[in-house]
Specification:
- The chain is elongated, with a radius of gyration of 32 Å.
- The protein is built from 21 helices and 10 strands.
- With 638 residues, it is of the alpha+beta class.
């Protein structure tokens, strides 16, 4: 039993709403963090990045070329946005922005739907959406095309939501219609959604009467708002068709050539809707996850259960005709999917490779969710069986929570697969900081960066042009001074191997592999440390387990006019290997010290050089805190 104070607390409507929205926020964070892993998963996104790397002029020229080649006038301004998003998606902060905009748009769509239906179903719908919404490798925003649908949808739903809430007057009406015009013209997906929204508002204001169709038509004709909607849609469709006639599309993806293949059309439409949900993606492998992931999914499931229970305690509002709403939503799902499924390209992908989910699947899922939400509201409002009536809320909450928790397991596995792409991009960024290691030919560079050819390209020759340009851009814009050798080793065979009795010079091209943090730029003779701590990283070779090899530093200390020696402490894994004071190069022998017993399982060894007396030169304007000047390393056998 709950304590009395908790009982009273949760019986307060405002407190229930506060807890509910906190839970929705936390559940969105949990669900959304999986979507931060993937970026540039499609060949289109990589191509957009390649164009964006070449500058604004190339971006605008390519946008016009794509728009004319596909007969899509909106691509004149939408493709530069796509290219910007693809370029910036490698930065976590931008991926966070894209994911936030995406889920905010979905929330606003459910708020809008609730206003049209006059039902308080936004929280319930959004929770169902989180449970059914999948992370996938297909062309599914926000991990691919981060802004292509998100921005037009966001503008469209915001304008219509504001108009529903506050009306349209004067200059705001003109601005509102211009924004809607631009949003729907940007992409066919937004146009189809806009038509559905207009139809929903018309039917909400003028419920269709099949028994008395003429009075219904007369009411429509007399409604000024209906004519405004007709004019707006007519302008959008007219401009779209005119541009399409002036620039016939040569792109299979927006062609209706497959509309006569009835079997393929029906199958592709069904799979575009069905594969846009998480349910068909469940498999037994999802159970093989770390304990921490199990804990997270279990807690998220409990939070979802609590959120649904709280949601179902909020009155939904007036009763609506479930049959009419269900029929409209089913027709709408087919309507937003059918034009895409009618293309031979999509039919070939779906039936030939099994890749059926696409951009339109992110629209059709909204219809599926609203259908379930309205059905749930209808079922919860009236139940002829008393016993079932008592169990209906926990039952709905339990089913939703289980689906959401299993979806979390699915998302974790997909995110792990997406990390393979992330590692390729990280490797390329690290290699950009090592120009001396870049192979001579683009083909060798491609094999070094992406030996598994994970990152997709449209053409076989495309990566040979892309990667040199990408590395050049990263090298020009990035600060490579903090790139440590262990991170650099991710880029390929750049490992700090050290063989016994072979002097390794630090000066020159190869010395940086042994340097961790705390070092200045390498010079011909060697390198100066520029901090009170500097790291050496080595991989001893040719040793047996347990061997205690000795390491000799060919080094000198930085001494000023008033300083004849500097202290030096060398540690490994927190244990002091050598401690002493070193004077000028001729007076003090090179430090030689024993390493800890060799452990083959610990491939790399990090040595920390502590320099308490490091200081800047008193003259010359050099502000570096100089300690030890390292010339070479020599490993001695035990």
């Amino acid at each position: 039993m709950r304590p009395d104070y908790l009982h009273g607390l949760f019986d307060r409507p405002h407190m229930r709403k506060t807890v509910l929205y906190v839970l929705i926020f936390l559940l969105t964070l949990w669900h959304g963090h999986f979507f931060l892993t993937g970026y540039r998963l499609s060949a289109d996104d990589v191509y957009f990045t390649y164009i964006a790397l070449q500058g604004p002029k190339t971006v605008l020229e390519t946008a016009r070329w794509i728009a004319e080649g596909q007969g899509r006038v909106g691509f004149l301004y939408l493709q530069p946005i796509n290219m910007f998003a693809a370029l910036m998606s490698e930065m976590l902060i931008w991926r966070l922005v894209f994911v936030t905009l995406y889920f905010s748009t979905v929330w606003l769509i459910f708020v809008y739907a609730g206003k049209v239906l006059k039902l308080s179903i936004a929280p319930f719908s959004f929770l169902i959406f989180l449970a059914l919404h999948p992370l996938g490798f297909e062309h599914l925003p926000p991990t691919t095309y981060p802004l292509q649908n998100t921005l037009p949808f966001l503008v469209l739903v915001s304008c219509r939501l504001v108009a529903l809430s506050y009306g349209e007057r004067g200059g705001w009406r003109v601005l509102n219609r211009l924004l809607q015009f631009g949003a729907m013209l940007a992409t066919e997906f937004a146009l189809l959604l806009g038509i559905v929204m207009v139809a929903a508002e018309v039917f909400a204001n003028h419920p269709l009467s099949l028994r008395r169709p003429l009075p219904w038509l007369r009411a429509l004709v007399k409604d000024t708002r209906v004519w405004i909607e007709i004019v707006t849609l007519g302008l959008v469709v007219g401009v779209y068709i005119a541009y399409r006639l002036a620039h016939p599309s040569g792109y299979e993806g927006n062609s209706l050539a497959g509309i006569g293949n009835l079997g393929a059309l029906i199958s592709t439409t069904w799979h575009h809707i069905n594969d846009g949900l998480v349910l068909p993606r469940f498999s037994s492998r999802f159970l093989k996850v770390p304990l921490s992931v199990w804990t997270g999914t279990a807690l998220s499931g409990l939070a979802m259960y609590a959120a649904i229970i709280l949601t179902l305690r909020i009155p939904f509002g007036k009763k609506v005709s479930f049959a009419a709403v269900a029929a409209f939503l089913l027709i709408s799902m087919i309507f937003v999917t059918l034009p895409v499924s009618a293309s031979l390209k999509q039919q070939g992908w779906c039936q030939g490779t099994g890749h059926c989910a696409y951009l339109d699947s992110r629209t059709s899922i909204l219809g599926v969710v609203l259908l379930l939400a309205v059905a749930g509201a209808a079922a919860l409002r009236h139940s002829p069986h008393r016993r079932f009536g008592e169990l209906r809320r926990p039952l709905v909450a339990c089913v939703t929570a289980v689906i959401f928790a299993l979806g979390g397991l699915h998302h974790w596995h997909v995110a792990q697969d997406m990390l393979r792409y992330d590692r390729v991009w990280k490797s390329a960024q690290l290699l950009a900081c090592m120009p001396n290691l870049v192979p001579e030919t683009p083909a060798q560079l491609y094999d070094l960066i992406d030996p598994g050819h994970v990152v997709p390209f449209h053409e076989d020759e495309a990566p040979l042009r892309f990667w040199p340009l990408y590395l050049e851009t990263v090298r020009r814009q990035s600060d490579c001074s903090g790139t440590q050798v262990l991170q650099r080793s991710l880029a390929g065979s750049y490992l700090p191997n050290l063989w016994p009795e072979e002097l390794q010079n630090i000066g020159g091209d190869e010395g940086s592999r042994y340097l961790g943090s705390g070092w200045s730029e390498i010079e011909d003779w060697g390198v100066w440390s520029h901090a009170e701590k500097a790291e050496l990283i080595i991989i001893p070779k040719g040793l047996e387990p347990g061997d205690q090899a000795r390491l000799q530093l060919d080094a000198q200390m930085f001494l000023g006019p008033d300083r004849s020696a500097q202290r030096l402490i060398i540690t490994q894994n927190g244990q002091t290997l050598w401690e002493g004071t070193r004077g000028s190069e001729g007076q003090s022998p090179d430090p030689i010290f024993r390493l800890l017993p060799h452990d083959p399982a610990q491939e790399t060894i990090t040595l920390t050089l502590i320099l308490p007396d490091a200081h800047a030169p008193p003259t010359g304007g050099d502000t570096r805190t100089l300690g030890i000047g390292l010339k070479g390393l020599l490993l001695h056998r035990p």
